[in-house]
Amino acid sequence: MKAMAASAYGPLEGLKAMDLPLPAPGRGEVRVRVVASALNPADYKVLLGKMKLLHGRGRPLVLGYDFSGVVDAVGPDVRERSPGDEVFGFLPYGPFNQRGAFAEFLIAKTGEIALKPKAVSPEAAAASATTGLTAIQSLRDLGRLPASGGQVLVTGVSGGVGSIAVGIAQKLKASVTAVGSGTGLFLAQRLGAVKVLDRTKDDLAGKLQSELAGQFDVVFDAAAAYRWREWRGTLKAGGAFVTTLPSVTFAIDKAASLFARTRVHFVNVKSRPADLELLAGWLEQGLEVPLAATIPVRDLAQGLAQLQKSGGRIAVRVADGF
Ligand SMILES: NC(=O)c1ccc[n+]([C@@H]2O[C@H](COP(=O)([O-])OP(=O)(O)OC[C@H]3O[C@@H](n4cnc5c(N)ncnc54)[C@H](OP(=O)(O)O)[C@@H]3O)[C@@H](O)[C@H]2O)c1
Hints:
The protein is α/β, with parallel strands linked by helices.
């Protein structure tokens, strides 16, 4: 099979098209013929050697966590999936992930996939996976949004996680305030944010003290650019600050938050079929996955450079992209 791969950690330009052996599914696994994937900051962070623990020791390095495609073979004892099923999913971060989605075929566990709704494009399904699961698990599980919805603030709204989180928060019946910059502000408005703050212009620090004080059930720092101590005054009693990356003061903030009657969490996204099925239902009902671009997989290095520079969700065409 063909894959975009690097023989070792290093610069993005190290990614080349390679011919690799076709993997065989083991017990509880399926082989997926990949149609589409999507880029995540984790791809360039791992490749550059900044987060080696997010990927296994398999070489060459085939990255790519998000995918949609067609089941092509099933391993022993797999009954819940059959060849021909159209699926999508997220390969979990970690040392057991040896081969990723920037390849013609991948191996996934049955617990890492769900059926792709027919009406949803392979690109949108793939691009919804990591970011959608991260938003669901941050807002619903860690944030513990009230069943009636409540008030959510989302940062990094032009980014992959932030943009889908605006829609997902509304699916969870919340009202959204968005923090972003540039065209992301228009995007957030279009996606239904009731209030939009420009992090480059608005007096954010002043607003945190005054008009935003005590407003939010959840502050979801999708951009991983802020700290609980800056936002604590905006949380309701019992409210949560959820970040996608722990800051250097995370442990201190977590302890201090207990005394402030608020909560601090770091999300570590998990691949869960029930959450993928929830996402699939929402996609079918029109949940938007905003895409900044769609690229063929052969342009992977350029796509990762664009993501590193500007953020935003970039879908990847794999099936016809080599
Ligand atoms: N822990 C986990 O399980 C998990 C899962 C998924 C992602 N992540 C992490 O979550 C982060 C966001 O992921 P992503 O896919 O959304 O990345 P992305 O597409 O690169 O988006 C990041 C966004 O952050 C905002 N931003 C950039 N610089 C900023 C600054 N100096 N101050 C404030 N905001 C800034 C920008 O949006 P605006 O210009 O609109 O503000 C940008 O679009 C990444 O670090 C990623 O590695 C973690």
